[in-house]
Automatic annotation (TrEMBL):
EC number: 2.4.1.1
Protein's name in the database: Alpha-1,4 glucan phosphorylase
Family listed: Belongs to the glycogen phosphorylase family.
Essential cofactor(s): pyridoxal 5'-phosphate
A cellular-component GO term for this protein: cytoplasm
PROSITE patterns cross-referenced by the UniProt entry: PHOSPHORYLASE
InterPro entries: Glycg_phsphrylas, Glyco_trans_35, Pyridoxal_P_attach_site
Example GO BP: glycogen catabolic process
Cross-referenced Pfam families: Phosphorylase (PF00343)
Organism encoding this protein: Terrihabitans soli
Length: 818
């Protein structure tokens, strides 16, 4: 019941009136515009500032509270936070969304347009960066005092434009007009030092090492508040921006060298200019190492300052702070922590090592060899000479202990060493992160098992028990409640309002899986979401797709191991099959692709071109009209994902088994009622275990079989192709230029790659993938059964909430109360 106050208005009306007044005040006094002349962007800024005021009170309150009660803090170090838009997140989590929508409505402004005016904060590449964003929201929701630390890139992930079917990259400019969410903390600035030399001195018979750097850069803090569900708690995301120590070299300027006078500024500012856009490959360049050390050093200085301010000294650090390394990108933190403790605080080695190794833990996100980070020793030494000394020392002690414990296995040493002696000497950041952490985790059950068997097999023997599994999760606030309000409303009705706080209650939906009325409602919600996506397709690509078709979706970074190409081969096979047998019972499909390729990844970019060339041919062929369409939606980002995911019927998770660490898109799609077609890889396995074998389409080799075939070297791609007439026909068509008449040889490299190496084993899985897709058709043609399976999927996804994942990290790794 709404309360009526003395003025005779309800609390709700009063809240709307207050929101309206706040927005107008911000428009006038902060944006500096008369509402009559305001643009959508002006409305966004005014609305965001009004919302931010509410956040700020909670933010400062929370900071005071956790300071006072001496709670252990979590520091999440990540080079990427893929946040996306924040307005809906903030309003929704503060339960102000309806109030602000009504307030804007009264002002004649559609909140949808205001939402769209916010640029995505795309400070990440893909899954790893988005995971960090989901984790920040869950930590705030669970009331864990946490700081996210990262870089405030001026330019996030590039904007993808598809021109004549090819990917082009353009700079992304989210900060062009500033962002209303952040607070500049110019008082929080640290010196970050690079280069120079190390002087060794002996003081009272104790060697001391004094680093004389050749360069200093400033790191300036910007805080963005991260709001937990129901505004329960607000944590800061602290992002560092680089500034030159001297903004201008005045002596040069006065001599007339006006450009030279600014070169230092440019060199320093370059550190936080742009996100490295390569995922799953190691960047390997100097600027990248500078970025890594820059944000690590600033973050450690900051958290150590805070600790000393509250607790006086650093001995208690492991009891009051848990530092999580999101992949090896911040692994230099192990050496930096040791340097601070040894050189700045004069601790003894053993004590410094105890503190360091009981404070850090490390999450691994990949086993792909090309993605494991290594640095050439000369480069590392030139940039961080003191850190290299410390790493050598860590390594020596570690190798000595290993030698002692495994006296008969000298070959073990080269595999567990931080230094890789092959191929020029290189530092292996994975080994450093492992050795310096008390806990190392993988991101799905299979991935963690494979870590123990492959990349970290020997380290796991030397340090048994350190590896744990923490299967990834996703925040349901963004990926269900905000992106799919229709489904959320139904869940509240059927499972009770508490479902918003207790996702396990979604299970109640399953009791009604066979109820035709519920099935119809679910189908209707899905259809409405598909209509929204249809409009996006028409607006962006200029052609229509039918909402009654099966929306078959593969949305993720473009990478060969994710096998978008396998999906395209099946698309071509299907296209041929429909044309040869037009009257068969084909399920009308729209194949939807979206995803960016790293700018330098030639093979992945050619596959994007293939998708677009196939789309052009198929979509213009009247003989498959109403049966098959192919869509490549450009510039995939968080906001587009929020539109595609609720509209998907089928979720493509078809990586070569053993290669996808977890996947998180797989969870988002299943939660929104898409059925998965997938290999037994990453978290697909755990999704299958939760939704049941009958409600998922599994195909292909298992990870063990992939390994076995690789070892045996047979059957080869040639044999696979010889055994599959359909595959042969597809390869001949693509290789022969059917989809590229303007350049018949365009896709020859792709086809030659499949015929010779087929590193990702597409030819091994093609037939079983085709068969699984026909099982999909069969189920689609029985709509009640399809919807039933979708309901069972939704009902059984609660375990994939990032609240569950974070609670596990808190209890089993960080040892902080939840
Ligand atoms: O991390 C991804 C994995 O591929 C997914 O399987 C997993 O679900 C996700 C979260 O655990 N890895 C990923 O996104 N990596 C990167 O984006 C990346 C970025 C820069 C880089 C290496 C990898 N140098």
């Amino acid at each position: 019941m709404l309360q009526t106050n003395t003025a005779g208005t309800s609390d709700y009306e009063q809240a709307i009136a207050e929101a309206k007044a706040a927005i107008i005040a911000k428009m006038t006094l902060s944006v500096g515009k008369d509402p009559g002349y305001a643009t959508d962007r002006d409305w966004f800024v005014a609305t965001a500032l009004a919302a931010r005021d509410r956040v700020t009170h909670r933010f400062l309150g929370g900071k005071r509270a956790s300071k006072a009660d001496g709670k252990k803090r979590v520091y999440y170090l990540s080079l990427e936070f893929l946040i996306g838009r924040q307005l809906t997140d903030v309003l929704y989590n503060f339960e102000l969304y309806d109030i602000f929508r009504a307030a804007l409505g009264d002002l004649g402004v559609d909140i949808e347009r205001v939402r769209e005016a916010e640029p995505d904060a795309a400070l990440g590449n893909g899954g790893l960066g988005r995971l960090a964003a989901c984790f920040m929201e869950s930590m705030a929701t669970l009331g864990i005092p946490a700081y996210g630390y990262g870089i405030r890139y001026d330019h996030g992930l590039f904007r993808q434009v598809i021109k004549d079917g090819w990917q082009q990259e353009f700079p992304e400019t989210w900060l062009e007009n500033g962002t209303p969410w952040e607070f500049l903390r110019s008082d929080v600035t640290y010196d970050i030092r690079f280069g120079g030399s190390v002087e060794t001195k002996t003081v009272n018979n104790v060697p001391r090492f004094i680093w004389h750097p050749s360069e200093v850069v400033h790191a300036v803090a910007y805080d963005t508040p991260i709001v937990g569900w129901r505004g329960s708690n607000v944590n800061p995301l602290r992002l560092w921006s680089a500034r030159a120590a001297d903004p201008i070299a005045l002596s040069l300027f006065n001599k007339g060298d006006h450009v030279g006078a600014l070169s230092d500024q440019a060199r320093s500012a370059a550190i936080s200019k742009v996100l490295y856009p390569s995922d799953e490959t190691a960047a390997g360049q100097e600027l990248r190492l500078r970025q890594e050390y820059f944000f690590v050093s600033a973050s450690l200085q900051d958290l150590i300052n805070r600790h000393i301010r509250i607790y006086g000294d650093l001995y208690s650090l492991p009891d009051r702070a848990a530092i999580q390394l999101n992949d090896t990108h911040p692994a230099v933190a192990i050496a930096e922590m040791m340097r601070i403790l040894l050189d700045d605080h004069n601790l003894r080695w053993d004590e410094a090592w105890r503190i360091t190794s009981s404070t850090f833990s490390y999450t691994n996100h990949t086993l792909l060899p090309e993605a494991l980070e290594t640095w050439p020793l000369p480069l590392f030494e030139r940039l961080l000479p003191r850190h290299l000394q410390i790493i050598y020392f860590i390594n020596n002690l570690h190798l000595e202990a290993t030698k002692k414990n495994f006296p008969n296995e000298p070959e073990l040493l080269s595999s567990v060493s931080i230094i890789d002696e092959r191929d020029g000497r290189r530092l292996r950041m994975g080994q450093l992160a492992f050795i310096g952490s008390h806990t190392i985790n993988g991101v799905s059950a299979l991935h963690t098992d494979l870590m123990k068997e492959t990349t970290f097999r020997d380290l796991n023997r030397v340090y048994p028990g350190r590896i744990q599994n923490k299967t990834n999760g996703i925040t349901f606030r963004r990926w269900l409640q905000q992106s799919n309000p229709g489904l959320t409303k139904l869940l509240c009705e059927v499972c009770g309002e508490e479902v918003l706080d207790k996702p396990e209650l979604i299970k109640r939906l399953e009791e009604h899986a066979d109820d035709p009325a519920l099935q119809q409602r679910i189908a209707k919600i899905k259809r409405a979401n598909k209509v929204v996506l249809c409009k996006i397709v028409t607006d962006r690509l200029g052609f229509r797709v039918e909402a009654d078709s099966l929306f078959d979706v593969q949305i993720k970074r473009q990478h060969e191991y994710k096998r978008q190409l396998l999906n395209l081969l099946e698309t071509v096979a299907l296209y041929d099959a429909i044309r040869s047998n037009p009257t068969a019972d084909w399920a009308p499909r729209v194949k939807i692709f979206a995803g960016k390729a790293a700018a330098s990844y030639v093979a992945a970019k050619l596959i994007i071109k293939l998708a677009n060339d196939i789309a052009k041919t198929v979509n213009n062929d009247p003989s498959v009209q109403g049966k098959l369409k192919v869509v490549f939606l450009p510039n995939y980002n968080v906001s587009l994902a929020e539109k595609i995911i609720p509209a998907a019927d089928l979720s493509e998770q078809i990586s070569t088994a053993g290669m996808e660490a977890s996947g998180t898109g797989n969870m988002k799609l299943a939660l929104n009622g898409a059925l998965t077609i997938g290999t037994l890889d990453g978290a697909n396995i755990e999704i299958k275990d939760n939704v049941g074998d009958d409600n998922i389409f599994i195909f292909g080799l298992t990870a063990a079989e992939v390994e076995e075939r690789k070892r045996a070297g047979a059957p080869t791609a040639t044999d696979n192709i010889a055994a599959s007439p359909m595959l042969r026909q597809v390869l001949d068509a693509i290789g022969g230029g059917v989809f590229s008449p303007d350049d018949p040889n365009r896709f020859k490299p792709i086809i030659d790659g499949l015929r010779s190496q087929d590193r990702y084993m597409l030819t091994d899985d093609f037939d079983s993938y085709w068969a699984a897709q026909r099982r999909v058709d069969e189920l689609w043609n029985q709509p009640e059964k399809w919807t039933r399976a979708a309901i069972v999927n939704i009902a059984n996804m609660a375990w994939f909430s990032s609240d569950r994942t974070i609670a596990e990290y808190a209890e089993q790794i960080w040892k902080v109360p939840v």
